[in-house]
TrEMBL record:
The chain crosses the membrane at residues 190-210. This is MucBP domain-containing protein. The keyword Acyltransferase does not apply. Residues 137-182 are annotated as: Disordered. The keyword Nucleus does not apply. InterPro entries: LPXTG_anchor, MucBP_dom.
């Protein structure tokens, strides 16, 4: 009577997956059997489940060799930062990792720009395909130089106006003062009148004096 010994080779990548052909051995009850660990490219042996050697019995036996998949470099993830016209406004960020590993990209704070939208998956897993994540930014509004209010000119104009007004007032004051220099005061008018009257009287007195003397 023979018993079949099934030698399975499996992987623990996500779920148990067969990564190599089974090896089936036959023998009579009581005879010895042995199974072998395989070298499988891209995998590393982890453990064995069951007896790697023993004797054939009247019951089927299974020996399972478990392997883990070796890390495999995935393609790069590139994060780009552009404006709404597609122009580059910041350096790309390139990330590397093994296939199946997680990745994440980050939004940047860029001076003069405001984040608008992202194109692509900001996070996910590395694969054997290159992936690109594009962050789009809108340029902040800037005041047009010609539309700016020139306060310095307004101040200058105001100062010139004040200076002009002050000059006008000063000129009027000077004219007023100048006129006052040539107008006699009330006392001066009275003195002038008396002097004229006295002179007239003196002339008349002299006239009559010489007339009577003749």
């Amino acid at each position: 009577l023979k018993q079949i010994i099934t030698h399975k080779v499996l992987s623990t990548f996500i779920v148990y997956i067969q990564i190599s052909e089974d090896v089936v051995k036959s023998g009579n009850i009581g005879e010895d059997y042995t199974t072998e660990q395989k070298e499988i490219e891209g995998y590393t042996f982890k453990e064995v489940q069951g007896d790697t050697s023993g004797k054939f019995t009247d019951q089927a036996q299974t020996v399972t060799y478990v392997y883990t998949k070796n890390p495999e470099a995935g393609s790069d993830i590139t994060a780009k930062y552009v404006d709404t016209e597609g122009n580059k406004i910041s350096e790309d960020v390139v990330k590397s990792g093994n296939i199946g590993e997680d990745y994440t990209t980050e939004q940047k704070e860029i001076t003069g720009y405001t984040f608008k939208e992202v194109q692509g998956d900001v996070s996910g897993k590395f694969t054997d395909q290159a992936q690109t994540v594009t962050y789009v930014y809108g340029q902040n509004d800037e005041t047009v130089p010609g539309e700016e209010t020139d306060t310095s000119k307004e101040t200058e104009s105001s100062t010139e106006k004040q200076t002009s007004d002050t000059s006008s007032v000063s000129q009027r004051s000077d004219i007023s003062n100048s006129g006052s220099k040539y107008l006699p005061t009330t006392g001066e008018k009275a003195t002038f009148g008396l002097s004229f009257a006295g002179l007239s009287a003196l002339v008349l007195a002299g006239y009559y004096y010489f007339k009577n003397k003749k």
